[in-house]
Amino acid sequence: MGEPTQVIPVFSGPQCAPSNPFCWDWITANWSSILGPSLVQHIYITLIAVVVGLVISVAAALFAFSRNWFAGGFLAFSTFLYTIPSLAFFLMFVPITGLSLTTIEIGLTSYTLLLLFRNTLTGLRTVPRSAVEAAEGMGLTPQQILFRIRLPLALPSIMAGVRIAAVTVISLATIAASVAPLGLGKPIFDAIHTLFDTELVAAALLTIALALVTDVIVVGLQYLVTPWTRVRR
Amino acid sequence: MSETTTERPAADIVFDHVTKRYPGQETPALDDLSMTVPAGETCCLVGPSGGGKTTAMKLVNRLIDFESGDITIGGNSIRAVDVTTLRRDIGYVIQQVGLFPHMTIAGNIAVIPGLLGWSKDRIRKRTDELLDLVRLDRSFGTRYPAQLSGGQQQRVGLARALAVDPPVMLMDEPFGALDPITRTEIQDEFLNLESEISKTVIFVTHDIDEAIKMGDKIAVLRQGGVLAQYGTADELLAHPADDYVADFVGADRGLKRLSLRRMREVVNGSAAAPDDAPAVDADASLRIGLSTLFASGASAVRVTDGGRVLGAVTLDQLQSAVTRSTS
Ligand SMILES: Nc1ncnc2c1ncn2[C@@H]1O[C@H](COP(=O)(O)OP(=O)(O)O)[C@@H](O)[C@H]1O
Ligand SMILES: [Mg+2]
User: Fold this and answer.
1) What number of C-beta contacts closer than 8 Å exist between A and B?
2) ABC transmembrane type-1 domain spans which residues (chain A) (predicted)?
3) Final residue of a structural domain among B228, B256, B284
4) Using one digit for the tens of pLDDT, what is the confidence trace for B151-166?
5) Which of A97, B26, B55, B140 is the one with CA 20 to 30 A from A214?
6) Is B193's pLDDT higher than 80?
7) SS3 assignment for B217-230
8) CA gap B65, B79 in Å, rounded
9) Do B83 and B171 sit in the same domain of this protein?
10) Largest alpha-carbon pair distance within chain B?
């Protein structure tokens, strides 16, 4: 994490007094070298964690649907992962996977499992009874009912999970920078050791903005994949 | 029907000493049921709530398993075929309709044809044909179930059940959730539709009037799943097997019998109607004839067919039409 003196050149912009908590000139001067790349890293860190978490959770929920022993087991496992303090979690994997992106992703993905698994399973289980009865009576196999009826009808519930998971991962990923210098957490951690606040404030604001924009995007995605939920008579 | 579907002949359904007992229940839900529903006929199952109507119906497509006895469709035991194949050959309609909310109307209708590997073109033609059949505008194809009224949804339910032209249909109180006007309308259309397509139908209802209207045959079940009587509406109304059936068909069974026959069937061509006789259409029921007679105070009604007078019908004729033995 370096000594504070190494960070001094960062706030060497001419107009920026160290006492100014938000210096616009510093931001424009350092966008392409610090903030921009960190933002892009943060986006793909989040994307990987949510996508991998979603794939694992949906697969696990589909498998768990007709196997209560597995549903209970996976729920207990993902709850356990969820209760581990995040920093401890990241550090736990350092001896195995090093100070790397892999370590970060293992931690972040683990945090999404409880939410995404539970929402998917609930969605699969709460489809209208009459639709399932009609499907059975028409001669759809249990597999076909699961994949053609239950899974699509679980989409609103799954997307609600994705929404919360994505925002949670965006905020947790800043802490992950203490393990590997990636994402918007890096400028935050760098700036903590200095007297200059702009870098920290800018990175924090970017994190919040990213969370808000992501939320809007996920809602838009949900809107696109569940056209039947917004029709009116 | 066009070349998109090969016309499939109806098949008879035979219950052969079928008994169903749910685990942990003292009395059977269905007790030694034996009856034959001839090919192309509609059999209405009526009886009290808990009388085993739904159970009897769900045995046919094996949504419920049974231990003793056998059921055959077109001579083949339902246990001899794969359950998925069996069900795809049986149209299934339930009171709650059970449309798939995430699929459009066309998507709902296309589910089984799709699974059977029909081409897109054949499915589209068949969907249009079915929407016409149940009297829904073809533009409904692109809508979602939530955009339809209860009556429209059940029309789609019917269309979906008819998609692959199954020889057998099972219907569990299909019109029970509809308002009276919509129900009458869709009943009439189903009767109409049935006369065009030959299906063997098991139609569950708790409403004896609906059974009289819809059924070629009526099976009356009593508590404990015992078949109390099986016959045509006229047989049940004229000769109820016991007090239970008599009570079930109602004290006004004499009037109900009048509803089953048309003026054309009893008109006496040689008798001239008195001058004050009111006119009744030849296709009106005897019940309408009686009502017209009473309302006018005349001694006979004049039966007309279009502009033509067929003859007269007196009160005595109306009475003897229902008191004379039916067999
Ligand atoms: N799945 C089931 N498990 C146990 N008992 C059942 C089940 N379904 C129906 N029954 C019982 O079987 C009897 C007949 O039920 P049902 O066939 O639904 O009658 P109906 O359709 O005439 O109202 C009732 O006593 C009912 O409680
Ligand atoms: Mg029932």
Assistant:
1) 80
2) 39-218
3) B256
4) 999 999 999 999 999 9
5) A97
6) yes
7) EEEEEECCCEEEEE
8) 10
9) yes
10) 70
Residues of B engaging A, defined by a Cβ cutoff of 8 Å: 61, 63, 83-88, 90, 92, 94, 96-103, 111-112, 115, 143-149, 157, 160-161, 170
Which chain B residue lies closest to A128 (C-alpha atoms)?
Answer: B98
Which protein residues have a CB closer than 5 Å to ligand 2 (ion)?
B 54
Residues whose CB is less than 8 angstroms from the CB of residue A106 and which lie 6 or more positions away in sequence, other chains included: A93, A97
Q: Give the tokens for residue A2.
A: 């370096």
Give domain status of residue B160, yes or no: no
- A202 contacts A187 by C-beta, under 8 angstroms: yes
Query: Tell me, what CATH number does B50's domain have?
Result: 3.40.50.300
State whether ipTM is beyond 0.85.
yes
Q: Could you tell me the domains of chain A?
A: 24-230 (1.10.3720.10)
* Whole-prediction pTM: 0.88
Cβ B111–A140 below 8 Å, yes or no?
A: yes
**Are the CB atoms for A182 and A172 separated by under 8 Å?**
no
**How many separate domains does chain B show?**
2
Which ligand is in closest contact with the Cα of B176? Answer: 2
Mean pLDDT value across residues A95-124: 94
Q: Are residues B238 and B279 in the same domain?
A: no
pLDDT score of A31: 82
Lowest mean pLDDT among B97-101, B116-120, B191-195, B232-236: B191-195
Domain boundary among B197, B224, B256: B256
Same domain as B178, residue B302: no
B215 lines ligand 1 (CB under 6 A): no
Distance (Å) from the alpha carbon of B208 to chain A's nearest alpha carbon: 25
Per the domain annotation, does B139 fall within a domain?
no
Residue B11 burial class via C-beta count within 10 angstroms: exposed 0-12, middle 13-18, buried 19 and up: buried
A66: its two tokens: 């007709």
Residues spanned by the domain of B309 = 261-324
Shared domain for B39 and B63, answered yes or no, is yes
CB within 8 Å: A231 and B144? yes
In a domain, B247, yes or no: yes
In A, minimum Cα distance to B59 occurs at A137
CA gap B256, B259 in Å, rounded: 5
The predicted pLDDT at position A131 comes to 97
Nearest beta carbon to residue B97 from set A130, A132, A231: A130
Q: Which atom of ligand 1 is nearest to the CA of B24?
A: 4
Assess whether B172 and B315 both reside in one domain. Answer: no
